[in-house]
Design brief:
It is a single chain. The chain is about 50% helix and about 15% strand. It is an alpha+beta fold. It has three domains: about 5-65, Alpha-Beta Plaits (2-Layer Sandwich), CATH 3.30.70.100; about 70-140, 2-Layer Sandwich (Alpha-Beta Plaits), CATH 3.30.70; about 165-270, no CATH class. The strands form two sheets. Strands 5-6-4-7 form a four-stranded antiparallel beta sheet. The chain has a three-stranded antiparallel beta sheet with strand order 1-3-2. A hairpin with a 4-residue loop joins strand 5 and strand 6 (about 110-115). The protein is elongated. About 25% of the residues are buried. InterPro entries: Heavy-metal-associated_CS (IPR017969), HMA_dom (IPR006121), HMA_dom_sf (IPR036163).
Length: about 280
């Protein structure tokens, strides 16, 4: 069952009582609109419609010659990596209050949103993207007058980095995480798999630090890999999974998480596992 919502639209070209009548008739003829009232004094319309009716109402007003005033928003979207991400962001933006149309560009990591004035606000659009797992900021020169358009995270004196600068910084950040993870994982690999390459390695570990100490050391190093450089797989993957829209982060989080939990049981509570 679709829930009806009430919107307040700002209209153009209203000049007389006849205009009010024609605008109301146009709105009431739009699919999904159950109630419509037009106010000449403040040039607005109050409509009650289901989620699909707002765009139809806007189109009906345009055709009747009383277009609703709109805002064109340009957003920077973070965290997108594939076509599925584009679909999720676009769906979330389109469902935000007052949004008439939304288009997402993966290559430019951006979104164009058409918002009906009075029916929604910029912060609700940004929140919709954020709740979907893709933080958004309003590009400079937004409709609310400031450099951030009232919806960004910076201030008037802070220049927003370009897309190439953001990409370069992201690459540097990923490189640092990769090297850190490799430095922690290499000892684990040597301790666990070294005996397959170096004869006598297994005996050497047993005679030096002992196998139980080796296992504890591997547990500590592996935990650091998962929860420091690998943390983002879990902070992104599980929320996406719980929203019913799993992505590659979800796949990595599930796979590594299952292996990690099994290994914890095998190390600290082996009696819980079948003898075979």
């Amino acid at each position: 069952m679709t829930t009806a919502q009430t919107y307040q639209l700002s209209l153009s070209n209203l000049s007389c009582a006849s205009c009010v009548g024609r605008a109301e008739a146009a709105l009431k003829s739009a699919p999904g609109v159950s109630e419509a009232h037009v106010n000449l004094a403040n040039e607005s319309a109050r409509i009650t419609t289901d989620a699909t009716g707002l765009a139809a109402a806007i189109a009906a007003l345009q055709k009747a010659g009383y277009p609703a005033r709109t805002q064109e928003l340009r957003l920077d979207i973070a965290g997108m990596s594939c076509a599925s991400c584009v679909g999720r962001v676009q769906k979330a933006l389109a469902a935000a209050p007052g949004v008439i149309d939304a288009h997402v560009n993966l290559a430019a990591e951006s979104a164009s949103v058409t918002l009906a004035e009075g029916a929604g606000n910029v912060q609700a659009v940004l929140k919709a993207a954020r709740d979907a797992g893709y933080p958004a900021t309003l590009r400079s020169g937004g409709p609310d007058g400031g450099p951030d358009g009232g919806g960004g995270t910076g201030d008037a004196t802070t220049p927003r980095p370009s897309q190439s600068e953001r990409k370069a910084e992201e690459a540097r950040h990923l490189a640092r995480r990769t090297w850190f993870a490799a430095a922690l994982a290499l000892p684990v690999f040597v301790l666990e798999m070294g005996s397959h390459v170096i004869p006598g390695m297994h005996a050497l570990i047993g005679q030096s630090i002992g196998h139980e100490t080796s296992w504890i050391l591997q547990f500590l190093l592996t935990s650091l890999v998962l929860f420091i450089p690998g943390r983002s797989f879990y902070t992104k993957g599980f929320p996406a999974l719980f929203r019913g829209a799993p992505d590659m982060n979800s796949l990595v989080a599930l796979g590594t998480g299952a292996a990690y939990l099994y290994s914890l049981v095998a190390l600290f509570a082996p009696a819980l596992l079948p003898a075979s």
